[in-house]
Write a structure and sequence with these properties.
Keywords: Cytoplasm, Lyase, Transferase
Number of helices: 16
Pfam families: CitF
Number of domains: 2
EC number: 2.8.3.10, 4.1.3.6
Helix content: 25-40%
Distance between the termini: 26 Å
CATH architecture of the largest domain: 3-Layer(aba) Sandwich
Largest sheet: 10 strands, mixed
Low-confidence stretches: none
Radius of gyration: 22 Å
Subcellular location: Cytoplasm
CATH superfamily of the largest domain: Glutaconate Coenzyme A-transferase
CATH class of the largest domain: Alpha Beta
Structural class: alpha/beta
GO cellular component, one term: ATP-independent citrate lyase complex
CATH topology of the largest domain: Glutaconate Coenzyme A-transferase
Strand content: 15-25%
Oligomer: single chain
Mean pLDDT: 95
Number of strands: 26
Length: about 500
Amino acid sequence: MKNNVNRELPEDLMSDLHYQPYENTEIGNPDIQRVAPKVRVSTGDDKLVSSIENVVKENVKDGMTISFHHHFRDGDFVFNQVMRVIIDSGLKDLTLAPSSLTDIMNDMVIEAIKAGTITNITSSGMRGKLGDFVSHGGLKNPVIFRSHGGRARAIEDGAIKIDVAFLGVPNADKLGNANGMLGDAVFGSLGYALMDAQYADKVVLLTDNIVDYPNTPASIKQTQVDYVVKVDKVGDPDKIGSGATRFTKDPKELKIAQTVNDIIVNSPYFKDGFSFQTGSGGAALAVTRYLRQAMIDNKIKASFALGGITKPTTDLLEEGLVSKIMDVQDFDKGAADSMHTNKNQQEIDASWYADPYNKGAMVDQLDVVILSALEIDTNFNVNVMSGSDGVIRGAIGGHQDAATAKLTIISAPLVRGRLATVVPEVTSVVTPGDSVDVLVTEVGIAINPKRTDLIKEFAKLPGVPVYSIEELQAKAEKMVGTPKPIEYGDRTVALVEYRDGTIIDAIKEVKD
């Protein structure tokens, strides 16, 4: 079985899991029936429980689905505390359904898999030891990878049915009113966790900071929470934003960022009231700085900025260059602090951010988005999931979701070390080429042939060479050569959903 991006899919597995192959980026206007959680009615005035052990013993059973969020990132202490109890309890055959998996979780997840505690995983991504373990067949069943918007859709329509959600928060009161803005381990927006709080049958908050009732503003509300557990420490604030706000001095990254800015400024979308999304990391932060100056020079203000937010973006809000920030996740303390102090920084959940099956996601209103890539091929398909060795080492995140913008720019170096970034065929398709408009590298740009309007706009852009994607691929291959083909086994270790729930790719087991 092949889908419309020419990827081979396992027909038996597709049938068993009731999946359809990816067809195109058009979502249409379907009527969707959403689900609702069970509710254990509580009229008591205190939901505080003495330990994680008590909650697990009373609520987690074999075969259930449990969830976590990843807003703490590498500073997360909650996940490992809870999983330690679950493994030691002897529970089996659980489905792990976090918003994403970070490196700090890897050892515990591998231990849980080996113990038979976890037999299924659905997540936005995985890296490091866990990605290597799964890629070599370590998990019983294939991982289901979903975008942030795709996860929200799957929770809302029941494809992911969360039995118990364990949500770490930097503060909560005795009934479970909580936010991400106050406490020692502040991370700002609770955007991804809000889905779990709304739809899980049981919601458990873990915090090191019990505050007076009623706690406001309440992102997660007492109407959603079953238990509040006081722990010694929920996270390390110094590691929550680690690496996210690296200001680059790399000439290659700065060249790419400058070119991205030139593309935006000379596009038809750079006008008063435009909207945009950038990411974290060196090149993306450099784009934000260049864009700031261009907005000042051209007396242009943005209506809103979207996505994972960093301090350089909140600085634009403070300067009046951006009217609103729609915040699903904060990547540094500066952004988290800003959400607490600036009323124009609006916390949004993952559904509002990017669910394709609702009455209007924020990504649908994006004019410009800048995204990265591990690989991009001559059909403009993008891989942010698998390394050139076939090993899982990334995450979909909001990549597919934000790529629906009017101008979708992929910024990437032509090569990384001895590996080509522009390739004949990507290792794994995550974002389809139909969503991509422009590739920006340090040597020049390539414009998707379907965007004849942009080809005319950028034909004579000063100092920006325009190539075909095939020409850039040939340049990359000339620099690093042709790699040896990856050797795969027959077993499928992961399925990659497109944001509408169809399957855009299957990831095979890598041979040793």
